[in-house]
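This section describes the prediction task in plain terms. A model, or a person checking by hand, is given the sequence of a single protein chain and must write out its three-dimensional structure as a string of tokens. No templates, partner chains or ligands are provided. The sample shown here is typical of the held-out split.
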Amino acid sequence: MSTTKYPILDDAFDAVMLEACYGGAERGLIRILSLTGMHVSALCKLTPASIIPRGSLSYIAWKRPKTNKTMEALLPKRYHEDVYAFIASRRLTRWAYNIKLKQIGERAGYPGISTMTFRHNRCVRAIKEHQGNPMLVAQIMGCTVDVVFRNYSKLSEMQLADKERDAELEGR
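The expected answer:
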């Protein structure tokens, strides 16, 4: 794990976090954040109308707080039950969601988890999936190309360096 403010997590992170959840609402919280990397203020505003069916597919839609830009992410069918459980659960404050994430993270062995951890990790995954195309990554994350270069490209480089170092240590 890196030493940045928002750690870049290992490939098992999502599965381990889901295992540490108590019930569908907590699993829905983890699934939404992993899929979208949305800010906590957008998370607080999700409603049943945030799930948009289009043919045989469903999308989760939200507004990015800084730009008021509408964002969407494909919602896999296997996530529907958990996401609906989250949306049906009692609304919490931004502070309460971050406390809940920290609790789940501690149960999973990942201290210091926040919604921004998920956002940074989503962006690093997007960089890898799209061969570092900053224009496409900026569109996916709803931020500017400048932000992608300034913040996330550095994180991606740090993650690669951490993995190379770990591989060297395992090879010894």
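For orientation: The chain has eight helices and three strands.
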